[in-house]
Design brief:
Elements lengths: L3 H23 L2 H17 L6 H21 L1 H7 L1 H31 L10 H11 L8 H20 L6 H21 L4 H7 L4 H5 L1 H25 L10 H10 L9 H8 L2 H15 L2
Helix pairs in contact: 1-13, 2-3, 2-7, 2-14, 3-5, 3-6, 4-5, 4-9, 7-8, 8-11, 11-12, 12-14
Subcellular location: Cell membrane
Membrane topology: Multi-pass membrane protein
InterPro entries: Prenyltransferase_related, UbiA_prenyltransferase, UbiA_sf
Length: 290
């Protein structure tokens, strides 16, 4: 028989872990880790040396863009994700200051080091403005595609940084990230059905329903996985790229559970954690096999 003290301690431990994870999600630190994970995956699969500067730039730009979006979406979050809205009201100004500071520092470092294409570091600012105040979210599917392409810029940026922009490896990773993030963005809209309807935002879930959204997202996931296999088989790409299928399996596992009533940790940790998962798989295989 389990001792009551042990059970109480376990519950406290779980509660503390949940609070910590919520803090990582609400603060945008976890999503910034996710974009850094895209850099790691890209570097390893493209057989490039891992350097700290691209990781820092991507982390800083992500924290800046997503924190700005927290403020522009505050009213909507009060309806859809009240805990996140409360967190933003309490800590948002500090995180915004941190995001702006790191973003400016990233630009300054790029300029001082004379990095080619430093001007492209203004793209995150353009993304923040277009997404948050430019009305992109009001157009059916455009929001999802915009988010997908914004994440797809990350492997392109890695390729540019290393002088490998137009290689097959970089282009395939770019297409894969763009496609998979678009699918994730559609799933993410499931949690916002009521709020999006009130705001007049047309999304796949509030037009087609939750069940249909899950079916179409799963079909897209399978199609992307099939495309990966076809490209690896039909081109000179290394078999290492089949590691991407691990993320398709991960996504296939969370799609059936997408529902408006899921907690913020389902969307903000499990769904947003897909690229963290992939990076862990790729790094693990690099050490163990390749």
């Amino acid at each position: 028989m389990t001792h009551p003290t042990v059970t109480h301690r376990t519950r406290r431990l779980i509660a503390s872990l949940e609070r910590a994870l919520r803090g990582l999600v609400h603060s945008n630190l976890f999503i910034s880790l996710a974009t850094m994970s895209v850099v790691v995956t890209t570097v390893i699969l493209a057989d490039l040396p891992l350097e700290p500067l691209p990781l820092f730039i991507v982390f800083a730009a992500t924290l800046f863009v997503y924190t700005v979006n927290r403020f522009t979406d505050l009213e909507e979050d009060e309806e859809n994700v009240p805990d996140r809205a409360s967190f933003t009201k309490r800590y948002g100004r500090y995180l915004l200051a941190l995001g702006i500071g790191l973003y400016v520092a990233a630009i300054a470092v790029a300029v001082v080091l004379g990095l080619p294409g430093a001007v492209y570091l203004l793209l995150p600012l353009a993304v923040a403005l277009l997404y948050s105040v430019g009305g992109i979210k009001q157009v059916f599917l455009v929001k999802n595609l915009f988010v997908g392409f914004a994440w797809g810029v990350i492997p392109l940026g890695v390729g540019y940084y290393y002088g490998q922009l137009w290689t097959l490896e970089i282009l395939v990773i770019t297409g894969y990230v763009t496609a998979m993030i678009t699918v994730a963005a559609v799933i993410f809209d499931v949690k916002d059905i009521e709020g999006d309807r009130e705001e007049g935002i047309a999304t796949v879930p509030n037009r087609l329903g939750t069940a249909a959204t899950r079916r179409y997202a799963q079909l897209a996931n399978v199609a992307i996985a099939a495309a990966v296999v076809a490209i690896v088989v039909g081109t000179s790409l290394s078999l290492e790229f089949l590691a991407l299928l691990a993320m398709n399996g991960y996504v296939a596992g969370y799609i059936p559970f997408a529902h408006p009533d899921r907690t913020v940790l389902y969307y903000g940790f499990i769904v947003d954690g897909e690229h963290v998962f992939l990076a862990v798989v790729v790094v693990g295989l690099e050490w163990l096999v390749w």
